[in-house]
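Suppose a classmate hands you a notebook page containing two proteins, each written out with its sequence and a corresponding row of structure tokens. How would you begin to make sense of it? This section walks through that situation. The first entry is reproduced here exactly as it would appear on such a page.
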Amino acid sequence: MVSATTTVTIRHEPELLGQTVVVIGGSGGIGLETARRARAEGARLILTGRNPERLQAAAGALEALSTAAFDADDPAALERFFSDLPAPIDQVMVTAGQPHYGRLLEMDLEQARRALDSHLLLMLEVARNAVHKVRPGGTLLFMGGVGGRRTGMGLGIVSTVTAALPALTASLALELAPIRVNLIAAGFVDTPLSASLLGDELDNRRNQLRATLPIRRVVTAADVAALAVHIMINTALTGATYDVDGGQQLIAG
């Protein structure tokens, strides 16, 4: 007796179809990977970045609706960008900014202010400018980190920002409701930014993490992007911080 085998094809419907996703810092690394994943889910993209050439390359590859080249730490430029955006938009992800290391008492006031501006005040400025553009149920999604949860010499300003971002996220989620506000806290992510920060030590850090992380590999931009797009899709998520670090917080160092 011959039994027939039936193949069932399960079709995945794009879950961001028809939505407009803005990625601030979308020309490389986590931002670019998130834009790529959102596009695969049917989203229309608006990308920003500091470097016009990289931005245009990313926009061409992903068929973005539009781009804007500016420094997100410039409040006037950020305000102009949001003012010019068509409304409504659906999702905004911000990956701009990088950690600032150094002893607190060796930082001058401008260095300390820049470290706070590029995370806390940027978050406030994005929220202030986006509130009348993002549709109810859409999300503002920001990037933070987990490394600063441990105190250490040279981590003072990083620890300050790390501690403040979840509280700011929760407060903004209440104030902007029904717009959602969420935070991704990443550990080491293997991106060009990590390469620029670590230089010749990059391979050593990769090897150390492969040997010690519970997942036995390094976290990539694609891992963060998968979480980011899930947060965009799941409209029950707001006011929360989501860790993606491969178990880095569970190990020493």
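The notebook's second entry, a different protein, reads as follows.
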Amino acid sequence: MTGIEGFLVPFINIELVLLIAIGVFIGIYIGAMPGLSVTMAFSLLISFTYGWDVMPALATMIGIYTGGVYGGSRSAILLNIPGAPAAIATTFDGYPIAKRGEAGIAMGLSTTESVIGEFFGIFILAIASPLVSMLALKFTPQDYFLLAIMGLFLVGSLSMGSLTKSLITAFLGIILGMIGIDPSTAQARLTFGSQTLLGGIHYVVIMIGLFGLSESLLQLKNKEKPVKQRIDKIIPNLKIIKKYLPLTLRCSAIGTIIGALPGTGGDIASMIAYDHAKRTVKNPSYPFGQGAYEGVIAPESANNAAIGGAFIPMMTLGIPGDSGTALLLGALYIHGLRPGPLMMRVQPEFFWIIVGCLFLSNIFLYFFGMTGVKIFTKIVEIPKAIIIPIIIVLSVVGSYSINNKIGDIYWMIIFGITGYFLKIYHYPLPPIVLGVILSPIIEQNLLRGIQLSYGSIWDFIGSIFTRPISLVLFLFMMIMVFSKIKICGIVIEKFRGKN
């Protein structure tokens, strides 16, 4: 079977078409529910599809994966609660847009940008898998360490006010990420003798509390009436798509590259893309953080482009790009497939069948994404006396369903109350989640890098300046630092004035 024949298999097999469509539909609604992640759906589906043939099982999982990554934007825009970590950055401007009464426009824009971003990622997956996978394979612990540190510098862009307050909340997130077993000594750390904290606090529990419960408590205090939404304009104007196409393509490229790095994913990609948009867009439609369309375009195109990126190391190296592809890799092993360089040579048709499934799932994503907008926008218009108890119940159920632990509900409530007071005193919440996500990546790769440098921290630092990838990342880091120093701009203006 040739490449083009493998690509067309999902299109000519009616069973695969239906399973992909069902998977995308289920994925969208799972992704829109806080706490119900794609990873959770995969873990249930693997046992359910154990007796299936490999192609139907693969088609269903790819559909759920595609729909789930996008679905998180629904609750992010309508309720200011990201349905998935990859949708955290979408809340920054998506929710303010909905508060203006333009939820339909925001959701139509997020759907269109997600589809464009994923098509970009699929295109790169199809034509550049060997090249990108070789680049990802060359990343050492030093490179991942620098990449995570770069991620921490995003707190400046995630802050809508005081940078000091952002740094404080980011530091709090790093501390929370360190709770549990020390990876180097296997000793309990910051557990205060509690056995339940040995496994740490799941960042989704923290996210549900900070964004879900705290928002519900804040809405109880806020007496604003629900805003009537305009849903006459759902499909974005072609002129708007063309206007923002360069930003879409740049953020899609960011998402594909970040997605191709094992251990990262759409959550980090969307944060970096949002930071890129905030730095490069000179005249946004509205100020960032106050409902800028660019603030939805950047993260939504990046997190779906990361889907294609995550498949690159999984298919070419047998290394999962994120938690979703990790479970998908396990499912492939269960069904007798061995993704990696050997499969790319011996069974290349499976690679092209997967590309075809991704392509078809993206088409269904646009169809289901657009047709469900009118129903979803009604959520914002529901009276608070009805919607707030529903959100609280979903937050409790979502927190419990992650690990089936009552303790996670208590932690969700604690972080919900904490988030409420942080919001009142104008402390930004996204840096906390960013710190929790990046903390283990920084620590683990710092320890690995030092071990590879024979235990010498100085050799570890020196290796950063002797490796091309590390040096490029370090230079990007310095650019991010200096771009935050306003005095540089003053000096440049004075220099220009003298000339």
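A careful reader of the second entry would note: The two ends are 66 Å apart (CA to CA).
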